[in-house]
Structures are given as structure tokens and as C-alpha cells.
Specification:
Shape: globular
Bound molecules: zinc ion
CATH topology of the domain at 94-311: TIM Barrel
CATH class of the domain at 94-311: Alpha Beta
CATH architecture of the domain at 94-311: Alpha-Beta Barrel
CATH superfamily of the domain at 94-311: Glycoside hydrolase/deacetylase
Length: 312
């Protein structure tokens, strides 16, 4: 019998900077369009879902943390017989991606890949393989610009052109995106909403891009992984790919299943809303009540499910 728990979610603005590779050159070259079939205009998609009724559409500032920013909903903690985890890989496709895909296929594990547009353009076969083998593809901008440091038109181009490239290869527009470094603002959300994408952050970040150490990455993740975790890794680094495979093996032996972000959210009951930001609300300790605070602490990160969404 499931226990009903009332959860208050704080719509505080917290960003844990993710590690990503250093930024590519500032001015992206226009890829030759002959190589992929891309639309000639930026794609504009209808909202895939109805807008939320409980969240305010008004911008919620970083300092504004009064009760109006809380959203309350119920969930049944023990209803799930399954234990699901979403592995996510940013910044590819890269030279290690096919090796990772081989390993995931062999294990029956699926993952989500937030792809860089210019790399997707240069490795279309890997992009196709990702999709055909049951994984999910998300947008990670054209060349990894910090979206809050550029103007609306350029930010929109970063996201829309990447979508055009991905659609040219796969025939589908992505429904999710991850802003580089996890950094987003109202402009980012507006564009994502217009392009029909939810912004997906994570609940576990082992900083694999920084130390590039297989053991540290694996142990960080294994110490925090639980049903509902969204794990951030980078398949552009060999130690991260090796760690990912070890993580899959270990957690599968404990009964976990690896699914895509969309599958995880559907199972967890999180409606995917275009323009909304999904991130981890940290909690103080393993034994504490799952009431999320704005007290971000790296040591406790990853202790909550990604069950918050935040609307600009
Ligand atoms: Zn990145």
C-alpha cells in the first residue's frame, strides 16, 4: 500500500553549474546544407501539451522565495515496482559514442543523448544509430554557447538550427533540450517553449568532465543513484564512457532499468511541458523528509528525484 506524501516544491532559482567542455569558437560556421536535409526556416512547433495550470507564467526571480513559489502535489512513494534511472550524455556525438552504444545495446540499456548540433551534423550515422537503438535525442545547442550570454536571435538560432539538423537526420524534432552548463533564463525558456522543448537538467552530476576519472565518476553515481535519478555524463570523454558502462552493470545487478528521460518522466508522472525547466531539488540528508530547500549543497545533491518543474 503506497504511502501518500505531500511534497512542497520550491520554485527557487538554483543552478548547479555543470561541467562541459570549453566553448567552441564563437562564430559557428554555417554547415553545408547539402549533407543533410534541413528546413529552410527555423522550425516552429506547437506546444505538445497544455500549459500548466498551477505555475505562474510570471518570471520568478532568484530572490523571490515566498510561498507563492511553492507548488504542491501528491505522489505515491511506493507505487513503483520498477526502479528506473535515466542516464544522459551531453556534448556528443563523439568518437566514443559508437562504443557506448555497443555496450548499451549489449545490456539492453537505453539512455538520452543531448547532442551538439555541429557534431550531429558531422556524425549523422551515429545520430541515426542513437535513435534506431531506442535512445532519446535532445538538443544541446549548435556549438555549446552559454545561452544567457547571447541575444535572443542568436540563442534562438543555436536551438532552432540544431533542431533543423536533428530533424534532417532523424525526421523528428527533439522534445527536450539541455542548456549548456545548465544555465538558462527567461529567454531560454521562451525559445524552448516556442520550439516545443522542455529543459531537462539532472539530479546527479559527478563532474566527470572535470576530473575525467572513471573510478570517481562511478563511485559518485553509485553512491547517489536511486529510482528516478537523472545522471549527467559526457560521452566525449573515454573515462566517462567506461564509468557509464560500469554503472549500468552495477545498477542492473541491483534491479535498476535504464530508460530514456521521457520514459522516466512518464513513469514518474511528470508531465513534460514545453518551456518548463526540470531539475533536482536537493534535500539535506538521506533520512530527512523529502521537502526540498534552496540550500544547495554538493554533498547532498542527487538525493531527490527530478520531480520539480519550474516555469519562467
Ligand atoms: Zn554540455
Amino acid at each position: 500500500m503506497g504511502k501518500i506524501i505531500l511534497i512542497s516544491i520550491l520554485f527557487g532559482f538554483l543552478i548547479s553549474l555543470t561541467g562541459c567542455e570549453g566553448e567552441p569558437p564563437a562564430i559557428p560556421p554555417q554547415p553545408a546544407r547539402a549533407a543533410v536535409t534541413t528546413p529552410t526556416t527555423a522550425p516552429s512547433l506547437p506546444l505538445p501539451t497544455s500549459p500548466p495550470t498551477t505555475a505562474s507564467a510570471a518570471y520568478i526571480s532568484e530572490s523571490n522565495s515566498n510561498s507563492n513559489n511553492y507548488m504542491t502535489f501528491e505522489y505515491e512513494e511506493n507505487r513503483e515496482p520498477r526502479k528506473l534511472i535515466a542516464l544522459t550524455f551531453d556534448d556528443g556525438p563523439a568518437i566514443y559514442t559508437p562504443y557506448l552504444l555497443d555496450a548499451l545495446k549489449e545490456r539492453g540499456a537505453r539512455a538520452t543523448f543531448f547532442l551538439i548540433g555541429r557534431y550531429a551534423h558531422s556524425r549523422p550515422q551515429t545520430v541515426l544509430r542513437i535513435l534506431r537503438e531506442g535512445h532519446e535525442i535532445g538538443n544541446h545547442t549548435y556549438n555549446h554557447r552559454n545561452l544567457v550570454m547571447i541575444d535572443y536571435e542568436y540563442a534562438r538560432w543555436q536551438m532552432a538550427y540544431t533542431n533543423a539538423i536533428l530533424r534532417g537526420i532523424t525526421g523528428e524534432y527533439p522534445a527536450i533540450m539541455r542548456p549548456p552548463f545548465g544555465i538558462h533564463n527567461e529567454q531560454t525558456a521562451d525559445i524552448a517553449r516556442d520550439l516545443g522543448m522542455s529543459l531537462i537538467l539532472w539530479s546527479i552530476d559527478p563532474q566527470d568532465w572535470y576530473h575525467r576519472d572513471t573510478d570517481i565518476t562511478r563511485e559518485h553515481v553509485l553512491a547517489r543513484a536511486r529510482h528516478g535519478s537523472v545522471i549527467l555524463l559526457h560521452d566525449i570523454h573515454k573515462p566517462s564512457v567506461i564509468a557509464a558502462i560500469q554503472i549500468v552493470d552495477e545498477l542492473m545487478s541491483l534491479g535498476y532499468e535504464f530508460v530514456t528521460v521521457s520514459e522516466l518522466f512518464e513513469y514518474m508522472g511528470h508531465e513534460m511541458v514545453a518551456g518548463a525547466v526540470y531539475r533536482e531539488p536537493p534535500r539535506p540528508s538521506e533520512d530527512s523528509a523529502p521537502v526540498c530547500t534552496d540550500d544547495y549543497n554538493e554533498d547532498t545533491a542527487g538525493e531527490c528525484y527530478v520531480r520539480q518543474y519550474y516555469e519562467y
